[in-house]
Amino acid sequence: MSRTEILSQKQLVFQRFKKNKSAKIATFFLFFLISLGIFSNFLSPYKPTIAGADKDYINGAPQIPRFWDENGFSIRPFLYSTERTRSIETNFRWVETVNKEERRYVYFFVKGWEYTFLGITFDRHLFGVDKGQIHIFGTDDTGKDIFSRTLKAIFISLAVGLLGLVIKLFMSLLVGGLAGYFGGWVDSILSAITDAIRTIPPIPLFMALAAFIPDTWSAEMRFFYIATILGLVDFPTLARRLRTHLLSERNQEYILAAQLCGTSTFKIIYKHLLPSFTSYIIVDTLINFPYMILAETSLSFIGLGLQDPVNSIGVMLENATKTDVLLNYQWYYIPTLFFIALVMAFVYVGDGIRDAADPYRVQK
Amino acid sequence: MSSFIKVNNLDVQYSRGRRSLFEKEEFFKAVDNVNLSINKGKIVGLVGESGSGKSTLGRALLGAKEFHHGSIHYNFEEGSIDLSNLSKKNLRDFRSKVQLIFQDPYNSLSPRMTVRDIIAEPLEALGMTKSKSETDNRVIEIAQKCQLNINHLNRFPHSFSGGQRQRISIARSLVAQPEFIVADESVAALDVSIQAGILQLLKSIQNEMGLTIMFISHDLSVISNFCDEVAVMYLGKIVEYAPKNEIFLKPKHPYTQALLNAVPSINPHKKNIQKTLEGEIPSIYDRPQGCVFQSRCSKVTDQCRQNEPSLKKFHNHEVACINLDD
Amino acid sequence: MTLVKIENLKIHFDTDEGQLLALDDVSFNVDQGEILGIAGESGSGKSITAKSLMQLNDENAIYDQNSKVLYENQNLLEFDDEKMIPYRGKIFSMVFQEPMASFAPAIRIGDQMIEQLQIHEQLSDEAARQRSIEALTSVGIPNAKNLIDQYSYEFSGGMRQRAMIAMALSTNPKLLIADEPTTALDVTIQAQIINLIKKEVQNRNMGVIFITHDLALLAQTADRILIMYMGKIVESGTVFQVLTNPQHPYTKALIESSPNIENFQKKLLPIGGEVPLLKDRPQGCVFQNRCSQFINNKCDKDSPLIKEIEDNHFISCHLHHE
């Protein structure tokens, strides 16, 4: 009689997730985007702050390296040199003129500005040019490289969203858990508080809370404050769900069965009550995460959230609101594409995990 | 021979809540002054209608419902345990020796645990095995005994039918090798053809493991087939307790007689349920003084309304009635 | 006299897994003054059959075009909701298993009964109330004049079921459909309800379709029985014929697996296997994978036809085909 192997639940969930094509693609995409954020310092040729601005290339269009032109083929990609001129022919606008004779070659793993990653200082970057600067997404009105800023923005947006999420989870588990497990007057009081928060419309609430930030606060304090607001405004829904779930489930027969098996209270919560809720937490987290990013983006967009030098996607989008930009400098909108991709990736991954983790889902 | 389980003067009450914040909490007795003695290796049936208290008695015996009056005493192989004063260590031993099989196969299995984990839970919670492979082996062993497909042990309960889920429930209750099992309406939710298989399984396992079983049910036909001895409950009291033959062929208590008359016979030539017991089952909140059955009894006298009859023993047949025919 | 004739009732359900056959060519009659029992376990289709008479099945039920529910020579399956109104509470009336579920919890019992009456008959409030009180009294509810104003949760299970029967009978239906009416009741209360139903059948000469899984209950209550399995009638006949002389392997197996209080030494024989899921309906006889008398190459190929083995005793089995 051969011995049969019994797979654990996690392995089964993983197997089912792997079968879901769209979720798999979304996961790779998500990891790719997150890596862009994490390794932003390495990938960015220039400092995303004003310190790395290129004064010779203001509001410059994206520069895509090429391999070939009339002067011949080059294995090493290159860019043309540009000069800023303005004259009556251009209506006195600053215009970049391209000098096709002068080539600037792109190098990889170049030395550049210093940054620290996990405590160690590096100075290598993925790519750079021998003369001048390369701006593959163009520059903004002070010459800051949009590519570098986009990558950094992904990181900042993720970071503030993550912190907000942690705060939200903590508050939800604490409040919802206590209310649901104890019931009675504990539940009454906690539920009253969460309901009160829920009834206030979120956008005005965000705005009101954010408007309170004194100017004297540092960028870091602002960062933490924004993250806390995000968590606090968003936690009631999850807290209420958890509370309801706990209240109904703790009277179920399988909980009594576990108690009669001798299972300790902690184990009962951990093994029986929480797993039925974990998939909900995971899905809720992943699906709502982009809304956290969106909330922060919106706040920053209207100037109430993060501010320079801390730039998130919202801060970058704030710069893109002028008509001038819409008509002439369309590359300012490139970060939007990244934002959309990020949100979509989260949603698809969240769906995939929920489908894989939920044993009641009919498998095709 | 001292009995395996001895219940003395047991009262179990539930809270009725308060009418308002300012009034006292009201209680009512679901089990009222019950005395019971169960011998090892027997299958004892506990039968009654709504409000009889049979489920509550079962829960009290399991230590799942606290009681404040009376005692429940177990004589296990390794020593006795008194439910009125359970130490923490005693509680663990107790949990490994006394188990419950639920009625509802759909609600009694944790929906997000695999069957293997569900069955293994008592072993892991009580620390009865030393390694995962030892646990796995015991799970496989008991699953096979319960005729479950061991290739399906990593599935979730929802992919099994009602009958199979009940087998899982049984496997879980047996894996720790208990001495006493309470089966609370364990076949009530199953189709008759499946029910027969579960009863067969329980009987063979009881035989093999020397289990003592308390089988709680409202279904007299099942009890007549499955149990050795039967206790009849009405409104929180045991009104009659006797071996199977005695109870079903020579019932003494008027309620038992009426109950048996109400069970339809599968023989269409024998029309038997015409003579019915009149009236409703009284509310458990308003237990009358005197005999609990007075409001519906055809033999009721004034004495019945004043004094509560105690269980009198005639050989092996106990009855709580003062107006017996013999 | 025949009251209702069900002919070739065939229903598919439109589900995610495709169109699944739930009822397969079910045909039977119900006569006036007779109690027809429909017995079966879960998945047998007995409830679906009952609901078909009033077109109460779910929206994804697809009736075959040859299916007919004939009453006074009209096929009720062709009626739209408007035309079906009298058949939902007046000419046909239904009593369900869960009495708590059939009364709205926030409306008084009396108001619900009055509403029911006024939908079907032109009655003033006073007259409807009077009729309701009479109905409640006739089913044995004491002090009906006061209790009529109570809510359903104030009634006990048995009283609620009586009230439901009262409501069903208050419109003087020709046919009463009772779907597991006593399953949720205590056995002594069940006996009272059964006697009540039998008395009403006698008094009113109405027909009753009584659905249950409890064969013994049908032995005491019904005149004729249909045994259903997976949407097919496998055996039908008088209650004497089917229960004392069962011929279909399923009927026999069902009786053998039922505990009998008059014969408690009896060894219960379970029926091996499980009822297949609808989507795994086998080709040939529906009972083949659990039948002790399975004939290879016959039972798994063709569906058995209905044969009359003695006067009005029909079965659907290959064993009795020759």
Explain how this protein is built.
The complex is a heterotrimer of chains A (364), B (326) and C (322). By secondary structure, chain A is of the alpha+beta class. Helix content of chain A is 57%, strand content 14%. Chain A has a 4-stranded antiparallel beta sheet. The model of chain A is unreliable at 1-7 (pLDDT under 50). Chain B has 326 residues and is α/β, with parallel strands linked by helices. In chain B, the strands form 2 sheets. An 8-stranded mixed beta sheet of chain B has the order 6-7-8-3-9-10-12-11, with helices on both faces. A 4-stranded antiparallel beta sheet of chain B has the order 2-1-4-5. In chain B, helix 3 (115-125) packs across helix 4 and helix 5 (162-174) runs parallel beside helix 6. The longest helix of chain B is centred in the middle third of the chain and has 18 residues, at 192-209. Chain B is globular, with a radius of gyration of 21 Å. The model of chain B has no long low-confidence stretch (mean pLDDT 89). With 322 residues, chain C is of the alpha/beta class. Helices cover 30% and strands 25% of the residues of chain C. Chain C contains 11 helices and 13 strands. In chain C, helix 4 (109-120) packs across helix 5, helix 5 (125-138) crosses helix 7 and helix 7 (157-169) packs parallel to helix 8 (187-204). Chain C is globular. The interface between B and C is large, with 46 and 45 residues.
Short précis:
The complex is a heterotrimer of chains A (364), B (326) and C (322). Chain B is α/β, with parallel strands linked by helices and 326 residues long.
